[in-house]
Batch of 2 targets.
Target 1
Amino acid sequence: MLKIALPSPLRRLFDYLPSQATPPCGWQPGLRVRVPFGRREVVGVIVELAEHSELPRSQLRAISETLDDAPLPADWLWLCRFAARYYQHSLGDTLHHAMPARLRQGHPMAGRTQTLWLAQGEDTDATLSRAPKQAELYTLLRQHPHGLPSRAVSAHGFTRDQLLALVKKGLAVSQEIILTAPEPQSGNLLAAPALPLNREQASALAALHEKLDGYHPCLLEGVTGSGKTEVYLQLIEAVVAKGKQSLVLVPEIGLTPQTLARFRSRFRVPVVALHSGLTDPERLDVWEAAASGRALIIIGTRSAIFTPLANPGTIIVDEEHDGSYKQHDGLRYHARDLAVARAHYHKIPLLMGSATPSLESLHQALSGAYRHLRLTQRPSRHPPAKLELIDLRHQRRQGGLLPGAIKAIKNTLASGKQVLIFINRRGFAPTLACHACGWMAECGQCDARMTLHRQPALLACHHCDSRRALPDACPECGSGDLRALGSGTERTEETLQTLFPKTTIHRIDRDSTRRKDSFEQVLKEIQRGEPCVLVGTQMLAKGHHLPHVTLVVVVNADGGLYAADFRALEHSAQLLEQVAGRAGRAAHPGRVLVQTLHPDDPHLGQLAEHGYGALARNMLEERRIAQLPPFCFMALLRIESPKEEAALALAQQAAQALRQWLKETGVATRCLGPVPAPMERRQNRYHLHVMLAADKRSQLHPAVSWLVQWLEANREARKVRWSIDIDPQTL
Ligand code: ADP
Ligand code: ZN
Ligand code: ZN
């Protein structure tokens, strides 16, 4: 009897009988099978072999087909089981999302052979002059003297028929190659020499070299631009030299062609990347290359943590504090936390790097659970610039900018340098208001104001994406005196263009970079170094090396200061420090102007005066006193429904039942709520939270697990949407 995980939200396995045909490896956990499920057929994974089923044999159905000759990688299966248990999620759903789409759809695991296409001969008779597509393809093949795999050819938009036509004309040949794991490396692994390290980098690397075997979690706290990446590269070099693999996680925003190029140009060994631009077959290729051990360096964003590794040597998590490591729906995992679990399982070192570490990781480092390495200096010698706070109160602004900021921009441009303006809001203005009666444009579906956009002109809700035409007159009082309130990127761009008509203003936000590659184009232009102004949102704030920027202006720093979410301050301080880190990274020192309505705020003051590191240690102390994470562990039950009463009734019942259970069992977990979510109504659905908190993880998980079972058994719970978020990052 086989216990099989199926793509279903139900937190259980399903029993099936084996088919007649036993797979060559015998029945084993990790084999994909196709099974009848209701009236459909679905792809599932065998998780256990069992003697008995709770169902009578007559009710058991047999699997229809085995899809693999050998089980999927054991380390991958382990991680999925761990994640499902830890996050209290359905294992079937976890496995389903953690495998490449091709495997999910039932396709075979990629083979070990590959067809390569090569150009040959010369088109002496100009036979291609009347076949422009074939001519293009021929040129493409000639640019790749080592041959192109079929998939790459089709990824360039060419068909198999076009290939065969070239073959017929004697201008191309195909070649089958067997893909093998690399030979144990000998000779030089490096394509480009490593940089000579400064003293701090060298001592960090020496400490890492000492512990290349066994589980050693380590936090590398290094100011922006201090050369953390160079330390990663040289750690990887040592791991590659042992013939082992390195898995490198980077934030969504960090996986740029520049980052990849930096890794690829350093090493002679295969570097593969997992990013959203891959086709499904390419993704499967990368998976297979990692699972077989062929790829020695694997770089990817959040979901890359689920890449199987034949021969793991280290895991590196760059910018470990970054919000993109947390998945916000389905399996709500945190890739950094799974990296910790995984490194422990593989018994390998884990390196987490950041200029602005999360309070969770910093706490582990300060308490000695993680090793703590620090880089306090930049190779460029210019320390990160201090933040200069400037008071927004009682001052006239143009496009959100104070006269002092405008003057600094002018001076910077005059000295031939670049300016970065950071503004947290895209669009023209945060809202549209009536000057006669005070009406403001609100979203009909959310508890939120609508953002005014000029290109194209409309009102848009950034929470539910609903759009509305601009009203000609106030819908409340009929007045025509409607005004844009506040500034977004579009307005600041417009103002700057008026103030500096001869200067190029680049706006970089989700609206301006919708076209694929347009962001890359702009970045390239910026790297050339002409004086210009960049106006951008978060997209610009992190990761990018902008050597010519010497002035950074933060239009408004107040977002996280007095927010309801206790993590808002941490996240906002991280963002400010990262933005500030864009200034003066190369040969010239930088300046950072921060506009604020709260120039006397002690947290902001500390950030400005002593930097994120000092503020973070202070925030940790405040969290300790308030008994908040990382000094306690949290889980969130989110309940949502179009009907407010239904959501509230279930939330109340759930909280009450849980409190009763906690009292009876003595499990030391606190239950708070229900409370409305910070934005209670979103997309016409009502959102409520029940919060669980415990001083020990061992007390939290049984409580969550009981609550999940209660919800699964509850009829009312089927009428609303609910989910569990372990270690929630936002409320
Ligand atoms: P971080 O990852 O800490 O933000 P990077 O690794 O991107 O910093 O380094 C910032 C800049 O400093 C890069 O241009 C990098 O090439 C350069 N750099 C790093 N280490 C050294 C070194 N030891 N000597 C000279 N330049 C270095
Ligand atoms: Zn009005
Ligand atoms: Zn909305």
Target 2
Amino acid sequence: MPAPKQRKIALMGYRSVGKSSLSMQFVEGKFLESYDPTIENTWKKSLRINATDYELILVDTTGQDEFSMFPSQYSLDVHGYVLVYSIENAKSFEVVSALYNKLVDITGKTYFPSVLVGNKSDMFQCREVSAEEGRKLAEKWKATFLETSAKHNISVSQVFQTLLNDIERADSNEKPN
Ligand code: GDP
Ligand code: MG
């Protein structure tokens, strides 16, 4: 049996948008009302997609804003990015957009596998970012767009499965259109 493919994914975005909650929900199937925001954690999960075994390494960053330095460990040997904002926080949407531009600058690439995630979809009553705005931004990036709820486990596994597929496609040099 071939060794599992190791894939490293970084979760980035403004503080408190749910990066740790998405990781924990996906890896452990749990949701906590509070999780220490200062912990930079690495989560690991083994999974199989289309008969391929993966060892997924999730780098759960402590969060950035538009002025943050971009630590090089987030651009080295990272295969793909989950860029997270919260649908009830317009500022977090601005931050995610700025982060993407920094990634382009730092990696010098015009395409890297990424998923744009609008988390906290259960808080639609306080919505500040429309799904349409999210979709448009993702389209610009040639990224997948998903609205999720880490709290209710809505579309969480899709985030990582889609990203793994995109990474696979980028690997085999088939450019997305
Ligand atoms: P991080 O700083 O981006 O890692 O954010 P956390 O995962 O620590 O989440 C910040 C806060 O938002 C915590 O109180 C979470 O319980 C809450 N939270 C995270 N995801 C969701 C969600 O999908 N829905 C709701 N209602 N709250 C969430
Ligand atoms: Mg966190």
